[in-house]
Structures are given as structure tokens and as C-alpha cells.
Design a protein that fits this description.
The chain has 76 residues and is mainly α. It is built from 3 helices and no strands. It has one domain.
Amino acid sequence: MTPKEKAKELIDKFQSRIKEYPSEIYEDDIEFQTARQCALVAVDEIIKSNPVTEQGSVFVRNFLYWESVKEQLNKI
């Protein structure tokens, strides 16, 4: 899955969870922005929980992938 696809998937998952708790406060754009912020928090936690140790290791590739997902979330 590309970082862009993962970013969209995370937003969709958070947005669907937000919709489970209907409120007059949430409108479509607010739901989307809230979901995007939740996804950014989740990605930051993933990045922090996987420290980079060696060049070329799986950790480095995972770090780069999640950094790319974060970039895509910031572009959406």
C-alpha cells in the first residue's frame, strides 16, 4: 500500500468512528479534519514506537514509510 493510500485509509477509519457518535457539532469538513488530526497522532505514535537503529534495516524502511504517510496526511 502506498503512503498516500495508507493516509486515506487512516482518515477513512477515524472518520467512520467519529460518525458512530453523531453530534450536531460535527459537519463533514469538521469530521474530516478531526479524523485527519487523529490519523496524524496515530502515525506520530507509530514513528516514536519504532526507533531507527541501523541503515538499511527494516526499522529504517518502516520509519521512511510512516514519514511518507505523515507527509501525505499533511497534504490532504
